[in-house]
Design a protein that fits this description.
alpha/beta, Nucleotidyltransferase, domain 5, binds zinc ion, about 350 residues, five-stranded mixed β-sheet, about 45% helix, 2 domains, binds 5'-O-[(R)-(carboxyoxy)(hydroxy)phosphoryl]adenosine, 10 strands
């Protein structure tokens, strides 16, 4: 079965074709980063309008890449939430229009399930069960994953997400948008030991996180450096960036390792935009090696938002028998706020 998938929850328009038997066939992405950069963050109305402009050309592009026609598609998947309402509506309405016109099923996909299953796009692919560290711009969660649709929340952030901590710290330091990659690039030339920053909840007995205090600490440092030196030099910024990255990564790594231990599994999977962070990848890879376990990351291009993970998540749900393909809805909805646990298979069915 061939599934076309649409992602439009935030500032990336992604379209992909996945075959339920053969895997990913083609994918294309347009990032709106350049458009939002002048505003220092995503402007929802501009995001929606740009999704409208991009989605059809990207659809043509993936069909051409795969050598397929729209008529060859058997089902349409789209990100139904969580995300920006207007942006979600673009992908959802295009997906539904295609589904209605071809009389094929439309499959709403939870954006975080897309991230969660994206490491399965890599080879070797992790086997279930595993612990997933889900670190995106809006979410920081630790999940136990026993199979498709079988997710147990182990811990999550009580305030800011890790990606937000990167982005907000970067903003305080006057770095560009999006802050995470910019801060991380700068950190490569910095000395983290020059600033002692807090590692909130590092030793708390639970698997929760808190990152909101970190940005206050970064702000205090920025002010202190400005008082002492006037404008911040490139080296000051690099040192502070390195210290900020180290603080975030230390907490993420410590809690992820604790979750692996508590869950009694050997495999850790990292997903979401912050999963692209080199420092996090290195720290977790080394730590899991020492413990005789394995760590898996999605291919870099599938860490941040993309259409491949949405079409792929839909294919995984179809293969697991979790999608009613005979249901042809006469309406559609998007869910800007949507808990991942809502797409879990009920315990009663797992048995
Ligand atoms: O998963 P994602 O693309 O979008 C959401 O669903 O939120 O994640 C975006 C987040 C942003 O906060 C961005 O700054 C962060 O991922 N990010 C990074 C890196 N690349 C992206 N953070 C740290 N280091 C990176 N290399
Ligand atoms: Zn995302």
């Amino acid at each position: 079965m061939i599934i076309i998938g649409f992602e439009s929850s935030c500032d990336e328009t992604g379209v992909a074709l996945v075959c339920t038997e053969r895997g990913l066939l083609a994918h294309a992405l347009h990032s709106q980063i350049d458009m939002h950069r002048d505003y220092g963050g995503v402007v929802p109305e501009l995001a929606s309008r740009d999704h409208i402009r991009r989605v059809i050309p990207l659809t043509r592009q993936v069909l051409a890449q795969a050598g397929l026609a729209l008529n060859d598609v058997d089902a349409v998947a789209y990100t139904a939430g969580p995300g920006l309402a207007g942006a979600l509506l673009v992908g959802a309405s295009v997906a539904q229009a295609i589904a209605w016109s071809l009389e094929i099923p439309a499959i709403p996909v939870h954006h975080l399930e897309g991230h969660l299953l994206s490491p399965l796009l890599a080879r070797p692919r992790p086997e279930f069960p595993f612990v997933a560290l889900l670190v995106s711009g809006g979410h920081t969660q630790l999940m136990r994953v026993d199979g498709v649709g079988r997710y147990t929340l182990l811990g999550e952030t009580l305030d800011d997400a890790a990606g937000e901590a990167f982005d907000k710290s970067a903003k305080l330091m006057g770095l560009g948008y999006p802050g995470g990659p910019a801060l991380s690039r700068l950190a490569e030339n910095g000395n983290a030991a020059l600033h002692e920053l807090p590692r909130p909840m590092l030793h708390s007995p639970d698997l929760d996180f808190s990152f909101s205090g970190l940005k206050t600490a970064v702000l205090t440092r920025v002010r202190a450096l400005e008082r002492e030196h006037g404008a911040l030099s490139e080296q000051h910024l690099a040192d502070l960036a390195a210290a900020t990255e180290a603080a975030i990564v230390d907490v993420l790594a410590a809690k992820a390792l604790k979750a692996v231990k508590q869950a009694g599994v050997k495999r850790l999977v990292v997903a979401g935009g912050v999963g692209a962070n080199r420092h996090l990848r290195k720290q977790l890879t080394e730590a899991m090696q020492r413990k005789g376990g394995e760590v898996y990351f999605p291919p870099l291009e599938f860490c941040t938002d993309n259409g491949a993970m949405i079409a792929f998540a839909a294919a995984q749900r179809v293969n697991a028998g979790l999608v009613d393909l005979s249901a042809t809805g006469d309406a559609f909805t998007v869910r800007p706020r949507w808990e991942l646990t809502d797409v879990c298979v009920p315990e009663a069915i797992i048995g």
